[in-house]
Amino acid sequence: MPRDHARSLARDLRRETDAEVRFDRTSRALYSTDASNYRAVPIGVVIPRSAEDVARVVGVCSRHEVPIVSRGGGTSLAGQTCNVAVVLDFSKHIDRVLEIDPDARTARVEPGVVHDRLTGETEERYRLTFGPDPATHRWCTFGGMIGNNSCGIHAQMSGRTVLNVHRLHVLTYDGVELDVGQTDLEEARELVRRGGRTGEILQTLIDIRERHAPLIAERYPDIPRRVSGYALEQLLPKNGFHVARSLVGSEGTCVTLLDATVRLVHSPPHRSLLVIGYEDVFRAADHVPEILRSEPLALEGVDHELVELMKAKHMHRHALEDLPEGHAWLFVEVGGETREEARERGRALQAALRGQVDAKAFVDHEADEIWEVREAGLGATARTTRGKDNWPGWEDAGVPPERIGAYLRDFHRLLGEYGYHAALYGHFGQGCIHCRIDFDLRTPDGIRRYRSFVTSAAELVTSYGGSLSGEHGDGKARGQLLPIMFGEELMGVMRAFKRAWDPTWKMNPGRVVAAEPIDSGLRLGSDFEPRELRTSYRFTDDGGSFARAAMRCVGVGKCRRREDAFMCPSFLATHDEKDTTRGRARVLFEMARGDFVDRGWRSAEPLEALDLCLGCKACKHDCPVGVDMARYKSEFLHHHWSGRIRPRSHYAMGLLGTWLRLARPAPRLADFLAHAPGLGPLAKLAAGIGRGREIPHLARERFTERLPSEPANPLGRPVVLAPDLFADAFHPDVLHAAHGVLERLGLRVIVAPKEPIAIRPLLHFGMLDRAVRNLRRAVTELGRYAQAGIPLVGLEPSMVSAFRDEAPELLGDDRLAASVSRSFRTLSELLDGEEGLRLPDLGGRRVILHVHCHQKAVLDKDAPARLLRAMNAAVEEPDPSCCGMAGAFGMEAEHVEVSRAIGELSLLPAVRAADAETWITADGFSCREQIGAGTDREPMHLAQLLRRAFSAAPQSGPPTAPRARRSPAPPERISRRS
């Protein structure tokens, strides 16, 4: 689109609407792809604030004659939500549950409502649910589910989305607003007689019903998972001329959805999950018709390839250990009104199968982790253990369930003919198979083979009376193949349906009908030559390639989860795609690609996208494909600011180690200069520290300045206490407490190094040359202890993670560094691993525990809770996410507001609500600073809590009960399915 036209369009949108209008390069890069193989840089992005705003936005776009595409969670796998168009993102603002009618069993929702937001309310209050629940149910939106005709695990009990839509409130590109549902034919004819656009649309739909009903009945397969093509069968007499349902699955190519009234179904309050093992996936599939006779709520299949991938990636380890013997598994869920009824139904099914297969049963919350094995399929299969990429493109074909075994055998043979490999899983009870395949989408020959394969696969599935898509829709991935399934005459009928709603073909053009070639506009493609970007990190798991690291993101969108989420803290506060791990990865990928974000490391777009990344490393733990945005940010900042003047906060806080070393001889003077009236505000301004944040007071005497000359336990087991920069300079009492506790427990404490070495602040700001020098120095000082087998304990989790997680990637094959990395642990990890310790008894005292985000991500996140529970504490962990301070992040003036918003999500309110007898503990220096600044409570480090507990406990007595080395059973969770 010409730049002048785009500027004019953006200007009119800003003037005539209340929407967020974003035509900048960063925003366009964020939305350039979805979870598919395709890429299309949009004209611009608009984020409307209301349904009225949507109408105004569409009106402006119509006047400018530019195409539009609607977007929710952006997890489409067939390219439906990326296009050279104006993207309307409904997920941020248009997300209200408008009405719930338990008597009618319906709910009215805006398109941006997340599936679990509605069902969380309806299940708890009314035992009603919206049946279709894709694997992304925690973050996918109703607009997307209706656009794609989504299904999910529990479509087994409710049918796909099209069968669960009652009415739709829609808007056409030319401004006609309609409320549609099941329509009386005579009323429709009357509207036709009145004329106008509504009459024109209805006339076409009536013509389709009357002239093409036999063809539709003949060519549309009558199977549970027919998702391909428009839902023209909903216009036929047997379906009551249901106009609303005919639009379900149209992928934004016909209308814009304003709100939807959807059907709710009874949700059995208790569930029993039976997991059945088989010799192979084909025998499992053969067994499906027999199991269907028990009318399960869900019937899913998983093959050994998927399980082996998860084992290799250490995903859901405990759940995988619980699977019965076999090389393929069926997951069968049955329900009941009571726990015993659900259990009994599971037992009855198990008894009926006895002697045929190996099976295990799980009830209610016991089954949650087992279900996560199935729901993690897409992320787990994105990359093989050999580092090879797997892609969608033929990932959701559907066949009659009674023929699934035969189809899988033929499909497996077809894969072999092309030399492809795939892990097979999916909704076996409805005949829908999921897989990602190791297509070569980089070379001309590989792309030709991809096109040939999907054409053959389309012919195969059609021969079984199946559907090219059984869940994810057609989009661009299958649109061009639809004539194989439907024939040319019926494709003409579909084009007439599209034209009736969208005469100018401006609604998501090139998708479903009149589709663009399936091998055009690939995210990679034969012309994909990413920039060779030299890096300081090795990026070992990505072959040393930063571009490949950014490519890890496959668009699953788990970083968009809003409830009970670890990542991404800034998205939890802003609900903005820019602040997701996925969004940042997209912009970095565009930078590596180099044809749109085209200035390499000097590009401004990644700097903007990374601005609110806290460096918490939550993504490394929670992202299904292990994107480590903290590392990517550090690498980017290192190169972006190389040879340039950095923002003042980088010098003030990134070089904190230098400033603290200079202040060491005169801490009182340094502290006076930082806090004196008149001088303090100037110091904060110079350092880039925000209003309401305070520079921590320097300690009058540091821990490392007054070390004991002789160990208290010369014959005890040695342990090295490694002082960290923050505790030594600001809170030396933490180090004194740890030293005292370790000695009281009979350990011989060695303090090293004598002066803390700054590493984490340098990593945070991308000062990697200095960070590497300091790491080498620290490794040299600590290496002799590590090689002697003496454990190294750090009190600050971010310091421990620097040695455990970052050092190996920055120092490469340095054996000393590897030894130090293996030896470092937190205080809780050290004590949790020690046998026979005499720990104090807390007598059931309530303790609010906040675990540092780096400990949650790359260390042992459960060690603090295990230790406290071994001391008989009542532990409460209110916040699964970051506290919001994240080291220097929450101190910087431009981040203070977001930092506080993150803290207010759950941590700070929980601390304020705690009574005076409740102890508050957090090992992270920044976490304690956030709690102290946002509440009237003074949190303790675990070392201080232990010292306090020892002081209150008897001086002698038997040791506490032996502790299990693995985590005990967690507090009972309320299952999504219970």
Question: Care to describe what's here?
Answer:
The protein is α/β, with parallel strands linked by helices. The protein has six domains: 3-89, 2-Layer Sandwich (Uridine Diphospho-n-acetylenolpyruvylglucosamine Reductase, domain 2); 103-264, Uridine Diphospho-n-acetylenolpyruvylglucosamine Reductase, domain 3 (2-Layer Sandwich); 270-439, 3-Layer(aba) Sandwich (Vanillyl-alcohol Oxidase, Chain A, domain 3); 540-640, no CATH class; 680-832, Rossmann fold; 846-952. The chain has 43 helices and 24 strands. The strands form six sheets. A six-stranded antiparallel β-sheet has the order 15-12-14-13-16-17. A five-stranded antiparallel β-sheet has the order 5-6-10-8-9. A four-stranded mixed β-sheet has the order 1-2-4-3, covered by helices on one side. Helix 8 (196-219) packs antiparallel against helix 20 and helix 29 packs across helix 30. The protein is globular and about 95 Å long. Residues 955-978 have low confidence and may be disordered.
